[in-house]
Every structure is written in structure tokens, then in C-alpha cells.
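Board notes (copied after class):
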Amino acid sequence: MAGLKHLTVGLVLGLSISQANAQTASSSTLADAWLQWQQANPAPVAWQYAFALRHDTAADLRNRRRQLIAELRTLTVSSRVAGRSDRVAALTVWRERLASWDDDQTRTPGRMDLPWLGANLRHNPPLSRIVHLGVCDTPGWVEVWSLDGVTRLDWVPDLTMDDVLDALSQEAAQDADHAAIVSPNGDITRRGVAAWNHETSPLVPGSRVMLELPTRQGLRAALPFPGTTHEADLINTRLPALLATRLPGDDCTMTRTP
């Protein structure tokens, strides 16, 4: 508690100039808003599950989601023609999950919490650029997008990608060479999951994992339409990027900026 108190004091001192210049009840920067948040919510904050949404991120999220849904639809049709019912089922679930998303339950990927801003004041944005900010309770799950569909697995200490793969069906990862791991703060890491490139990958609560679709030769052999490898490449890139914009938990407290 003493360390946390000293950290808060240091942050307040580092931000005192902007705070002292605030002439109204509204905050002038995101860090100012976090200081007000902390005053209103004195309980300890899990800053690794804090988030904020910038206006420039929010502006194109719906269009990005619609494009990805269209790409999934193209790949679903091709998979159906190829007789790949397993892939059709999984891509359909992915599409339906994307279509059900609430665009308000989003964030800008990357750290925008008070401790990080206190150490990186040059990256402290004006509050006029922020749609909302908030903090989620630490979730008890990791979320996996695979040929099993979309699966929530209970997080346990020392959980790794190997544990996740063991919990999925054998078919879920049989064609996957890589996984994209999205951390709670929206960082994306690409890790090997096949026998030839296996990497040990620990997972923290709230991680989201996408087992990449096979591309190039593997997918070309399975699907009859030209161009579907391009669709798979796009999905492998764009789906993790969209997953990085989701809130880092289910039980979140959010406040919109003035």
C-alpha cells in the first residue's frame, strides 16, 4: 500500500501543472481524467485492465468490422464448395460473433493508463480526443478463436498455449502453424504452434487467441477458388487487430468524456 501511495503521489506531482491549470470541472487531458477517476474510486485499480477509446479509433471500427465479415463470408462460401464443413461451421460462428459486437464496448489498443501516462507525459492526449475511459475487473478466462468456433477457457495460474491446444479438439489446430495472442492491453504477438515451430507461450487472464487459418499452399489445396488465400491472409491480420480493440474484460466500469 505504501508503494502504491508513493506512486500516486509521484504521478500527481508530475501532472500538477496540467491539473493546476484546469479551470472547470472537466479534465483537460486523459491523465487528469484518470486522477479524477482515482479520487472517485479510491479502491485499488488493476491498471493492466484499464482502457480508453480515442475518437480516431472509434471512427472506423464499424467499417473495419463490416469488411472482415465480408471477407469471412467469401471464405465460408469457398469452404462450403470444397466440402469443408468444419471450416464452414467455425467461420460462421466467427462471423456471427463479429456481427453481435457492440461498438461502444471498444478501446484503443495500447497502454493509456495512469501509471504509463505518468511516465510518458509526451503521450498524454487531450481529453477532447477521448470517447471514454474505464477499468475492467480481472477476468477469469482466455478466449480462443479456432476451428472449434469461439471458446472461453478458464484461466489458471501458469496457463500456456500448450494447455489451450490440449483443451481444444484435435481438429481445431491441425492446420494451424501460428497463433496470434492478443494481450489485455491490446498488444499482438505471433507465436508458433506447430511441431516444427513450437514456442512456449504463457497466457495472462483476458488474453484472446486466434489460431491462424492456413494460407498459401495449405489453403490452396483445400479451396477451389482463386484469391481465397488472399482472404485468409487478410483475416489472419485483421481479426487479431479487431480483437485488440475489445475491452479487456466483461465486468467493466466506464465513463464517457464531456
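Comment from the instructor: Strands lie at 50-54, 130-136, 141-146, 149-154, 178-182, 188-192, 208-211, 252-256. The CA atoms of residues 231 and 238 lie 10 Å apart.
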